[in-house]
Design brief:
Distance between the termini: 62 Å
Strand order of the largest sheet: 1-2
């Protein structure tokens, strides 16, 4: 038996002993460390980025966050930028999706372990046909990123952008994967008045954020006039539209920085920043640090809500927030069941939503506390960076690059947990395959609320 066969056998044996959440956790960790190893040589970073900066960039890319401590366009070579782009793509569509697509293309079945990881990674129902879903993810990704590249290339070429094709490919993938990585040091501020670039980036970000389930659902509904959108897709689209419709006028009317712009640019900037926070895309066309305090608070709340399940974005997720809002509304109305849009929400979904929100806010609180300890202070800038990191958003008020070593490590941990999911990370650490006999049935306890 060769050494490679022994290693492969050892890895397979180790993987079989892990649950699906544990495999998701270990998988993303292995890709982050592999990306770190590829970024460290001089051929990638040109010795301009430190070892810690390379780790920060690798985790930020695989988590599709976009926060950086160095300049992607200036401190990394073309090879380094290619590594970053590959990590973004892997992180956006899921680290197992590409290999699963290759297996299916060769007309081979997916193993139960791989199916379990994919369902955990995309938060899919247990009865979901994972084979069809992988094909849909691959096709939609190729089509959407390809069309985005074409439009962005023509626009970058028209405005005289250096290396327009590479910029188009990089920003198209970064937008659809809601990563927010840019080859420009000021993100997309140079194109704040360019409607075509703003609209293209926004569409790519929203298409990635609403999730592959919604994309497939809408596609088949358009092809079949009799098919209607599923309840999940309806909730996701309604929540996403509602956030955009409420937040955009607020930024347009009350932000002092946007008030200095002409009306058309003002509306475009307001809409773009709401999209960027809601989809967790992370690009900006105006300096975030110069926006008003009320705007910063509004963007922070939007980042906490985040994108939708089975998509490329982060956050608590629109469906979880919708379920919790339904609990509050049903309680205020005195209803015995929790309903949303005329449908009763099952108890297990409400438990999942409550767990997701609690784990997320708990992780955020601990992250803010740890960063405050590391930096010996607490400011709105540090709070904003923590929310952006855990939500895998990438918007920054400029504090990330100035963090000390411990502060950078805290943000790295938040970005990684944001991509894996605080709830998934908790399951990976605590969940057992089977319950103990004493845990199967528990005595009822009365708790006053």
């Amino acid at each position: 038996m060769s050494i490679f066969t022994r290693v492969e056998h050892g890895i397979s044996s180790f993987a079989r002993r892990l649950s699906a959440p544990q495999l998701v956790f270990v998988g993303f960790l292995s890709y982050a460390l592999s990306g770190w190893a590829l970024l460290c040589p001089a051929m990638a970073s040109g010795n301009r980025a430190s070892i810690l900066d390379n780790l920060f960039t690798s985790v930020s890319a695989i988590s599709t966050t976009g926060l950086t401590t160095v300049s992607v366009g200036e401190d990394y070579t073309w090879f380094g930028q290619l590594v970053i782009l590959s990590l973004i793509q892997l992180g956006g569509i899921g680290y197992m999706t590409l290999s699963s697509f290759v297996i299916l293309a060769r007309k081979q079945p997916l193993g139960p372990s791989r199916e379990g990881v994919l369902k955990a990674q995309f938060a899919l129902p247990s009865e979901f046909n994972i084979g069809h879903f992988v094909w849909q993810v691959a096709v939609f990704t190729l089509m959407i990123e390809g069309m985005g590249t074409i439009v962005l290339y023509l626009e970058f070429l028209a405005v005289g952008q250096r290396q327009p094709l590479w910029h188009a490919v990089f920003h198209s993938v970064s937008s659809f994967c809601t990563a927010g990585f840019s080859l420009n040091n000021n993100s997309l501020e140079d194109y704040a008045a360019n409607a075509a670039i703003n609209i293209t980036i926004s569409l790519l970000g929203y298409l990635g954020a609403v999730g592959f389930i919604v994309l497939a659902d809408v596609w088949f509904s358009l092809r079949s006039r009799t098919k209607r959108l599923t309840f999940t897709s309806t909730v996701i689209l309604a929540m996403t539209t509602g956030i955009f419709a409420v937040a955009t006028p607020l930024l347009f009317c009350f932000d002092p920085l946007l008030a200095e712009l002409p009306a058309t640019e003002r509306l475009m900037a307001a809409a773009f920043q709401v999209m960027s926070a809601s989809s967790t895309t992370g690009f900006n066309t105006v300096p975030i640090s110069q926006m008003g305090g009320a705007t910063i608070m509004l963007i922070t709340m939007i980042m906490v809500i985040g994108a939708s399940p089975s998509g490329t974005g982060g956050g608590v997720k629109t469906t979880s927030v919708s379920a919790l809002m339904a609990v509050v509304w049903s309680t205020l109305r005195g209803r015995p069941v929790v309903g949303l849009m005329g449908r009763e929400i099952p108890l297990e979904r409400l438990q999942a939503a409550a767990s997701q929100c609690t784990m997320y806010l708990g992780t955020l609180g601990l992250g803010v506390y740890a960063l405050a300890l590391a930096e010996h202070t607490l400011s709105i800038e540090l709070l904003f960076e923590c929310v952006s990191a855990l939500g895998t958003v990438g918007l920054s008020m400029g504090a990330t690059a100035a963090l000390n070593t411990v502060g950078k490590l805290v943000v790295i941990g938040l970005m990684f947990l944001g991509r894996v999911g605080p709830l998934t990370a908790g399951l990976a650490l605590l969940q057992r395959r089977t319950l103990l006999p004493s845990e199967a049935v528990l005595p009822r306890g009365e708790l006053t609320l």
